[in-house]
Design brief:
There is one protein chain. By secondary structure, the protein is α/β, with parallel strands linked by helices. It contains 17 helices and 20 strands. Strand 17 (450-454), helix 16 (458-467) and strand 18 form a beta-alpha-beta unit. The chain is globular. The termini are far apart. The structure holds adenosine-5'-diphosphate (ADP). InterPro entries: Ald_DH/histidinol_DH, Ald_DH_C, Ald_DH_CS_CYS, Ald_DH_CS_GLU, Ald_DH_N, Aldehyde_DH_dom, Aldehyde_DH_Superfamily, Succ_semiAld_DH. Residues 54-510 form the Aldehyde dehydrogenase domain. It is an enzyme of class 1 (oxidoreductase).
Length: 516
């Protein structure tokens, strides 16, 4: 029995006890059955959340949520705009007064309960992610664990928002530093991690006493709404967490122009991040930005080939290449280039493509047609400039938005594949001769989020990882994100850090009291 089918049976037995499914049903009908079962589960919501109430848009407009693997409509959600966002801001502003006055221990208990509920609904949340985002179920379940870990971590961290006592400059003075919540936070999140990008922001915000208006991606709002439902079930008071979606620029403008919103936290494209940064100037808001990357993955001659292949595969192909920390350029040293290209292509060839509910599938569809067209144009650009496709290089025979896992050699720095994020399952291999050359190529970009190096030379490990202008560096490792470490970029990859003890600093003001 597949994992998906096991999970489906669990949902069906708890929510639709009388529905019997034939043992061998097709992938499409299985997905429809999963969707039907999920719609009857206690976490399924398809309206916005404002002040603890589930509501539609004021004019009744809706927007469809589709399954990228089949194109089927999963649900309609409200197409909200300025008015609903203003209502959500007012609710968050009102709730701030009482939420911020709770003790850290009280807020911690609410978050812990929310974490427990997220984990006890892991299967349904994972299925929702696969359904609306397309990633394989196993990866989706991994995201639930990863996403929930931020709520657990910040439930604990809530109790450790320490201030300071500064030795006074005058005998009769006492100087104190307090950390206080910034206030109402607007959190705008993308579709590639429908749960984790929300919990990574909401966890620290709620922990230190802020309240939040979340705007998830319109492509994947159902996971956000399910997580919000679980927050309500955990007893988190109405108005502390609000969710609106629909007209993204209008919602963004409403958040930016409100003087009650004191902070914007955003994960998404660099272009939108820059707009938000400019827009935040009007009301001088705090800002955290997690923007695009252009991750180099450097394989040195002295690397362990198996480790390098495994690590590069993970760094490149997770979520079908649709993450901002995915390896975007694989830089391989001259002496190992041919061997690496061969071993890597073999490994890529074994990646099974298909709908995320099928057992064994590790590559799902791309999020939409625009994403496939972008990948196609980047590959074409590389071919026209002399690169060679040694594996894949076209749409998958499955149709829809499936694209073949692809390896391209002879890629050079001036090609689009090396200059911009491809955000798809294409691995461009560039060749370099010396360590200095690799560092130069790696840093020759405006982005600076994640970088990876593969080497067995200890001195080189320190030298190169410190010379790379990146916020995160993985050494002999392709997956490095964890709730306990600071995640964030340098240069145009963003501002601020998420996760870890540093993550909560983004949501507090440092207040100084001088007492005579
Ligand atoms: P991607 O290309 O990965 O979808 P985007 O930056 O377009 O990245 O989207 C990330 C998030 O930003 C989504 O929730 C999207 O709806 C939102 N968004 C897009 N444009 C705007 C805007 N002008 N103002 C506020 N949010 C926006």
């Amino acid at each position: 029995m597949t994992v998906a089918r096991l999970a489906l049976c669990k949902i069906l037995s708890s929510h639709l006890p009388r529905l019997h499914l034939p043992s061998a049903f097709s992938s499409a009908s299985r997905q429809m059955s999963i969707a039907a079962a999920l719609k009857n589960s206690s976490i399924f919501r398809s309206q916005g959340l404002i002040g603890g109430n589930w509501i539609g848009s004021h004019d009744g407009k809706t927007i469809q949520v589709n399954n990228p693997a089949t194109g089927e409509i999963i649900a309609d959600v409200p197409f909200m705009g300025r008015q609903e966002t203003s209502d959500a801001i007012s609710s968050a502003y009102q709730a701030f007064h009482s939420w911020s006055k709770l003790t850290a221990a009280e807020r911690s208990k609410y978050l812990r309960k929310w974490y427990d509920l997220l984990m006890s609904h892991k299967e349904e949340l994972g299925q929702l992610i696969t359904l609306e985002q397309g990633k394989p179920l196993k990866e989706a379940l991994g995201e639930v664990g990863y996403g929930a870990s931020f709520i657990e971590f910040f439930a604990e961290e809530a109790k450790r928002v320490y201030g300071d006592i500064i030795p006074a400059t005058l005998n009769d003075r006492r100087l104190f530093v307090l950390k206080q919540p910034v206030g109402v936070v607007g959190a705008i999140t993308p579709w590639n991690f429908p749960l984790a990008m929300i919990t990574r922001k909401v966890g620290p915000a709620l922990a230190c006493g802020c309240t939040v208006v979340v705007k998830p991606s319109e492509l994947t709002p159902l996971t956000a709404l399910a997580a919000a439902e679980l927050a309500l079930q955990a007893g988190i008071p109405p108005g502390v967490l609000n969710v609106v979606m629909g007209n993204a620029p209008e919602i963004g403008d409403a958040l930016l122009s409100s003087s009650q919103v004191r902070k914007i936290t955003f994960t998404g494209s660099t272009a939108v991040g820059k707009k938000l940064m400019a827009g935040a100037a009007g009301t001088v808001k705090r800002l955290s930005l997690e923007l695009g990357g252009n991750a180099p993955c450097i394989v040195f001659d002295d690397a362990d080939l198996d480790v390098a292949v495994k690590g590069t595969l993970a760094a490149k192909f997770r979520n079908s290449g649709q993450t901002c920390v995915c390896a975007n350029r694989v830089l391989v040293q001259d002496g190992i280039y041919e061997k690496f290209a061969e071993a890597f292509s073999k490994a890529v060839q074994n990646l099974q493509v298909g709908d995320g509910f099928t057992e064994g599938v590790v590559q799902g569809p791309l999020i939409n047609e625009a994403a496939v067209q972008k990948v196609e144009s980047f590959v074409q650009d590389a071919i026209s400039k002399g690169a060679k496709v040694i594996l894949g290089g076209k749409r998958h025979s499955l149709g829809m938005t499936f694209y073949e896992p692809t390896v391209v050699t002879d890629v050079r720095s001036e090609m689009l594949l090396a200059r911009e994020e491809v955000f798809g399952p294409v691995a461009p291999l560039l060749r370099f001769k010396t360590e200095d050359e690799a560092i130069h190529i790696a840093n020759d970009t405006n982005a600076g989020l994640a970088a990876y190096i593969f080497t067995n030379n200890v001195q080189r490990t320190w030298r190169v990882s410190e010379a790379l202008e990146y916020g995160l560096v993985g050494v002999n490792e392709g997956i490095i994100s964890t709730e306990v470490a600071p995640f964030g970029g340098v240069k145009q990859s963003g501002l601020g850090r998420e996760g870890s003890k540093y993550g909560i600093d983004e949501y507090v003001e440092v207040i100084f009291d001088a007492v005579n």
